[in-house]
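Writing this down once: the sequence line spells out the residues, with the fold written below as integer tokens. This is how one looks:
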Amino acid sequence: MRISKNPDVRRSELIEAAEVLFREQGFKQTSVSDIVKKVGVAQGTFYYYFESKDDALNAVIVHYIDNYKAGLERLLGDESLPPVKKVEIIVNDALGMHTCDREFIEFLHTEENLVTHQKYMIKSFEETIPLMTKIVEQGIAAGVFKVDYPEETVEMVAYAFGYLEDALSRSPGDAKYHSRLRAAECLIERLLGIEKGTLHIAPSAERSLFMTHG
């Protein structure tokens, strides 16, 4: 007797399979047949959920961003962490993506995926900047941060650090690597109005506590 899976579960399986294959083989080299074979379903099942392979790629990006967004929401609601620590976690995660999720970042940075990378950046900022702003507002309310324009400040820092992460991912052994991190510390401390030496940026090779995939 054939057991039909919940549609949401099946769609998630296809997205996760596509993500793995896009990373391992490249987007162009991966076929719809490869994806359905990995999941063990008929090709028609893929087209029930997705119009095309490009549609599946968009779903992979949304899936990745949704996991990141969920992590930010958990961080926002964690009353045990002070606002400075929350900002520190976010910055370290953002600047450490090229080490903690190397395969995904390398996938986005290939020449064939430049448009995809741009879509990821735009979608990611749309979803996460409001949550980051709320964390900064928590610090303002607690009397820790002194920021006149929290949303605008977060927006500018997010875009700047997005490109900084790109630079770090292209040359992790660069002589300027550590000086860039120290400059990033100074920049954020000044923008938040906190004492110099308060923030400690040290991107880790391990995935941060709030970056989980599901």
